[in-house]
Write a structure and sequence with these properties.
The structure holds 2 protein chains of 2 kinds. Chain A is mostly helical. Chain A folds into 3 domains: 1-76, no CATH class; 89-304, no CATH class; 312-532, Orthogonal Bundle (MetI-like fold), CATH 1.10.3720.10. Chain A has helices at 16-26, 37-76, 82-87, 89-95, 108-123, 127-135, 141-152, 158-167, 174-180, 184-189, 191-206, 218-229, 240-248, 257-264, 271-279, 287-292, 312-343, 346-357, 364-375, 380-388, 403-427, 431-439, 444-472, 476-481, 489-498, 503-527; strands spanning 295-298, 301-304. In chain A, strand 1 and strand 2 (301-304) form a beta hairpin. In chain A, helix 5 packs across helix 7 (141-152) and helix 21 (403-427) crosses helix 23. Chain A is flat, with a radius of gyration of 37 Å. In chain A, 35% of the residues are buried. Chain B has helices at residues 3-23, 35-52, 67-77, 89-97, 106-109, 119-123, 181-187, 196-200, 203-214, 228-235, 245-254, 281-294, 297-303, 349-368, and strands spanning 27-31, 57-61, 84-88, 133-145, 172-175, 220-223, 240-244, 259-274, 310-311, 344-346. In chain B, strands 1, 2, 3, 4, 5, 6, 7, 8, 9 and 10 form a 10-stranded mixed sheet that branches. In chain B, strand 1, helix 2 (35-52) and strand 2 form a beta-alpha-beta unit. Chain B starts with a helix and ends with a helix. Classes of the chains: A mainly alpha, B alpha/beta. Chains A and B meet through helix 6, helix 7 and helix 25 of A and helix 3, helix 4 and helix 14 of B.
Chain lengths: 536, 369
């Protein structure tokens, strides 16, 4: 198409309408280079988006790696539970078919599996870790595993070792075992022994040892004995040594492993421990979440915790109630301050602003401790009241180590987060609106309430969200001034992270807290509308 | 000293130092509690060690309170930045259980006692875990305001005076955890000392202890940091309160406050080092060298000149002298002194390792309700 700029013949030249008409007649609109305009536009937009993405890529990566990923990992701990099946794989498999409701102990095969698992775990120092994990669910598991770990290497299973080596001395030689399991049909015939040997060899290699040079331990012979006495075992076609052993094992002197465990610790005879292992054998568990809502996962299913152990429901409710109270008192105290700041001449407003910001430059601990000095029974406020004669010396007010103390201290600490957004929103409200309202006959109150206040609501919204979300996760201040009635759920989360090491439970509590915040945020958006929130 | 001798001596030193450098790292990060206790360690063994090994530098990290959680996080991240960590025995046991602390052989790692006894005998039962290298014995016990004792009444000298609000009215401060409080409650509720843990194992026993604590619950301020009780006592906020005996010593002797010491039913506990598991060879060698020095008879005795905690070695006890600044005899201020140790408890590590989670849940629920 040739273009013309001759303005004398306007009707003959191309007009924007031409394109539309042409599109209607002959397919898509084309750009200057002949590609369809739509595609060309999309391409340009995509390039624009890519450039924008490239620009924020460093920040995005930083946030993903240092923020999202660790939080995701921490939250996943609330359901992850692979420690049981990783440490006791054979036992978990045996327990899968055990009916725990019968109140009977599992069979000897399970005890053999447990023995093999525990010896290997003890070698790798994993058994006590598992004990600590199970102790969260069953009191006593910790010392049971520690104690049994010490005993398990001295179980009387050397009986099997002696009998096998009596048949053929080469059993004692680890090289025999290495050769034996290099043949795949041996592994098929002796599955338990093969699996056990593989775990043992893997462990030795990870330690930098050579399996062929180590002693052959009792648990390997125990596994071998179990395999050879299993019903339907078929060693035909295997080595003479194995055939000879298979023929001899029915006459072997045996050891009852359940008795060995009983000798190590009588608590093994209580079905509770095996039930707990069984209940917590899946790789993912709802146990932590149930704990976090004052319930528990037992062999019989989910049940509520006993009355005297319920705590998290109370703490969640208290955390939300107190956070709302703190937010409310911040609004009440902060609104007039923000109003004054916004309506003073700049010079005095700046001076006042420094006073508002001053607490930011003081350590949180110093501010909290200052409240302690102020509020305690022998503190400044009580002393003053007693001196004025308003309060009797033996009836001093209790203002700290309770909810009151927490609310006062946290309101003070979080106040700037309320004042600043309010102030920046109020600054944008032209004073002429109020004057206009008054000149039209409104009283002071009506002018404020009908004209000024609605325009300042976005500031209140922003401040409230900031203060509420900050206070819901606070723990240092409640820990110091909260006593027993003023502590938050975060104090328990901190306890489980740093003291009890029950990170799964801490993660579950944290996930619930996060969910609560998101739900409240969603509700806030529905009711107030998040678009109405302004930081300035 | 002639020039020749100096040169000889210097070159000999260089050779020794050179040999050491070849296999030992020269930086150590030591973790402790901060405050007066860390200072006692700095004075008693770190400074002398650095003097003997000028090439070495030591950095303190005051993280012992969160050591267990932090070590676990470091271990998961595969980057252990600490070389030696000071923890209480209960934490050492947990770290050992979790595989985060290194097991060691006392005979190989620790020096012989100055009286010739083997390290194992010298520390005796105090090696409560295969990973734990004991340093000091401290105790949790009560202090009280001498000026708040009602007239005509004897100063409190019995653990059960804590539960006696009639004779000794006023607030108490107790630690915000079940350990120790449950034992004291049972003891004052008529349970014989030797039966305390048997009773505490049962649900009824736990309820009994909480019921006893219930009688003073409204008068208790609960503390979570060791500095709280000394502060509360100094402010006159509480009449009596439990804390570590070293803290009370400094309130009484160093700050001269009207506070008295009540040793009855004090609970012995241990504090010591653990070496994090999985240290690289060169750092491990340095730490081993340091630990051997820092836990020998003389060094542990020296520490008692700065803080009133008892040395963990039997052979150190006779060497305990005077306070470095106050010049008072430290012997009578040791929790292990026979006069103070007439009635004592020893922290029951096995019991609490098992029952801590369970009883803590009940205790916290009781506190909250």
């Amino acid at each position: 198409m040739t273009s013309t700029t001759d303005t004398n013949v306007p009707l003959e030249g191309p007009t924007p309408d031409d394109g539309l008409r042409a599109a209607e007649q002959s397919g898509p609109m084309l750009a200057a280079d002949g590609t369809p305009l739509k595609r060309s536009l999309a391409k340009a937009l995509r390039r624009e988006k890519m450039r924008a993405l490239m620009l924020i890529a460093p920040l995005l990566l930083f946030v993903l790696i240092t923020f999202i990923a660790p939080i995701g990992d921490m939250l996943l701990r609330s359901v992850r539970n692979d420690i049981v099946s990783n440490t006791l794989p054979e036992t978990v498999e045996q327990l899968a078919s055990w009916d725990s409701t019968q109140q009977e102990l599992p069979d000897e095969d399970t005890w053999t599996a447990l023995y093999i698992d525990l010896v290997l775990a003890e070698e790798q120092k994993l058994h006590t870790r598992l004990g600590s994990r199970l102790n969260y669910e069953l009191t006593g598991a910790s010392s049971l595993f520690r104690k049994t770990g010490r005993a398990v290497g001295r179980f009387d299973t050397d009986v099997y070792t002696d009998q096998f080596t009596e048949l053929d001395e080469s059993w004692e030689n680890a090289a025999t075992w290495v050769n034996m399991f290099s043949e795949s049909d041996v592994a098929d015939a002796l599955p338990l022994t093969a699996r056990t040997w593989e775990r043992w060899a893997d462990y030795l290699e990870s330690e930098g040892d050579v399996p062929a040079e180590e002693d052959v331990e009792d648990f390997l012979f125990t596994a071998l004995y179990k395999d050879l006495t299993r019903e339907g075992v078929d060693v035909s076609g295997l080595s003479d040594r194995l055939q000879q052993a298979a023929a001899a094992v029915p006459e072997f002197e045996t050891v009852s492993l359940v008795e060995q465990f009983e000798d190590a610790d009588e608590d093994w005879l209580d079905p509770a421990i095996m039930q707990t292992i069984q209940t917590y054998s899946p790789r993912y568990t709802s146990g932590y979440f149930l704990n976090a809502v004052d319930a528990q996962l037992t062999a019989d299913g989910v049940s509520a915790r006993p009355e005297n152990e319920r705590i998290y429901g109370i703490l969640f409710k208290r955390t939300i109630f107190m956070s709302l109270t703190i937010t409310l008192s911040c609004i009440i105290l902060g609104y007039p301050v923000a109003w004054i700041l916004a309506n003073l001449p700049t010079r005095s407003a700046n001076l006042l602003m420094i006073l508002v910001l001053l607490p930011f430059w003081t350590s949180l601990l110093v501010r909290t401790s200052a409240w302690k000095v102020m509020l305690q029974q022998q503190g400044v406020i009580n002393d003053t009241l007693v001196w004025l004669g308003l309060v009797a010396d033996d009836a001093r007010l209790v203002m700290i180590n309770n909810q009151f103390g927490t609310i006062v201290a946290m309101t003070h600490i979080l106040l700037p987060f309320m004042i600043l957004p309010m102030y920046s929103v109020m600054q944008t409200i032209p004073p002429s609106y109020l004057r206009a309202a008054k000149s039209l006959g409104a009283t002071n109150w009506t002018a404020f309430w009908r004209v000024y206040f609605p325009q300042s609501v976005p500031g209140i919204g922003a401040g409230s969200i900031l203060v509420f979300i900050l206070s819901i996760g606070y723990y240092i201040t409640p820990e110091i001034v909260g006593g027993t009635t003023g502590t938050f759920i975060s104090n328990r989360i901190a306890y489980h992270i740093s003291s009890s090491l029950n990170w799964g439970l801490a993660a579950a509590l944290g996930t619930i807290l996060l969910a609560v915040v998101l739900i409240l945020y969603w509700a806030y958006d529905k009711i107030v509308g998040i678009d109405n929130v302004k930081l300035g | 000293m002639t020039l020749r001798k100096t040169i000889l001596a210097t070159s000999a030193l260089t050779v020794i130092a050179g040999a050491a450098v070849a296999e030992m790292a020269n930086d150590m990060t030591l973790v402790s509690w901060g405050g007066a206790y860390q200072n006692s360690q700095q004075k008693a063994y770190v400074e002398p060690y650095l003097e003997a090994h000028p090439e070495v530098s030591a950095t303190w990290d005051e993280s012992s309170a969160e050591a267990v959680a932090k070590l676990r996080a470091m271990n998961e991240a595969g980057n252990i930045t600490w070389d030696l960590v000071d923890v209480v025995a209960a934490d050492a046991i947990r770290l050992c259980d979790e595989g985060l602390a290194m097991e060691y052989d006392p005979e190989e790692l620790l020096a012989e006692g100055e009286d010739g006894s083997s390290a194992e005998d010298d520390f005796g039962d105090l090696i409560v875990s295969d990973c734990f290298i004991p340093q000091i014995v401290y105790s949790t016990t009560f202090g009280y305001r001498t000026d708040m004792v009602p007239e005509g009444v004897e100063a409190p000298n019995d653990i059960c005076d804590v539960f006696d609000l009639e004779t000794y009215p006023g607030k108490r401060s107790l630690e915000k955890r079940p350990i120790n409080n449950m034992e004291w409650a049972l003891l004052c509720d008529g349970v014989a000392k030797e039966d305390v843990y048997d009773v505490l194992e049962t649900d009824e026993g736990q309820e009994q202890a909480l019921a006893k604590l219930d009688t003073i619950k409204d008068s208790v301020i609960w503390w979570s940091a060791g500095a709280d009780t000394p502060q509360l006592l100094a402010d006159g906020e509480v009449f009596m309160g439990s804390t570590y005996n070293g803290r009370l010593f400094s309130v009484i002797e160093e700050q001269d406050q009207p506070v008295g010491m009540m040793w009855d039913a004090q609970v012995f506990d241990l504090d010591g080092w653990i070496i994090p598991a999985g240290l690289p060879e060169d750092r491990l060698e340095r730490v081993k060298d340091f630990v051997k020095f820092a836990t020998d008879t003389q060094r542990l005795a020296d520490q008692a000149a700065y803080i009133s905690y008892g040395p963990a070695r039997k052979s150190s006890a006779p060497l305990v002298g005077q306070h470095a600044e106050l010049g008072i005899d430290m012997g009578p201020h040791m929790p292990t002194d026979p006069d103070n140790a007439a009635n004592t408890f020893v922290y029951n590590y096995d019991f609490w390792a098992d029952y801590r989670d369970d009883i803590d849940a009940k205790f916290q629920a009781w506190l909250t309700q």
